[in-house]
Amino acid sequence: MKRGNLFILSGPAGAGKGTLRMKLSEEVSDIAYSVSCTTREKRPGEKDGQDYYFVSKNDFGAMITHEEFLEWAEVHGHYYGTRRSDVERVLNEGRDILLEIDVQGHHQVKSCLPEAISIFITAPSLDDIENRLEERGTETHDQLEIRLRNAAMEMRHTGEYDHVIINDDILRAANELVELVKKYRTA
Q1: What is the pLDDT of residues 123-150, one digit of tens each?
Q2: What are the angstrom distances between the C-alpha of 133 and each of 8, 92, 154, 177, 185?
Q3: Domains of the chain as residue ranges with CATH
Q4: Distance in angstroms (rounded) separating the CA atoms of residues 86 and 68
Q5: Among 4, 49, 80, 145, whose CB has the most other CB atoms within 10 angstroms?
Q6: Is 161 in contact with 106 (CB distance < 8 Å)?
Q7: Tens of pLDDT along 4-47?
């Protein structure tokens, strides 16, 4: 059986990764999405096991010790990680899987699975990211400042990705993402 494709979706907060991921799942129904673990608090409307696995810092630390993560990082003051067993199970079933992870996680995954297809999602500018985050209204002022500093750093890594999609128009960017995934699936 042919092993599935591993797609990595990265980019700064406010670039639209989650929205594009949802649009991709509407168009490409048989791609799995790897639910990450996080130590951050749940936002309104998020569901444990669907959006993230919300875990304590102690539990996350134990998972690191037991080498359960394919990748993990501290981002915006919280821990995030992808369970290795979840990804390997899907790939070995011959199914494709999508990871929505940060730049640090991208480096970790590409170092152990270089065949992974990496896609960087960004907004046209840092000002656009700031406006989107302010409109989202889910962060405090201090959290917003951290996310903007991290966004500026993350945007310097676009050249390390296989593909870059500028999310200047959600429908155009979604179509570009869908076509890109379909291209790899038929290769």
Answers
A1: 998 888 888 888 887 778 888 888 889 8
A2: 22, 37, 16, 22, 33
A3: 6-186 (3.40.50.300)
A4: 10
A5: 80
A6: yes
A7: 999 999 999 889 898 999 999 999 988 999 999 999 999 889 99
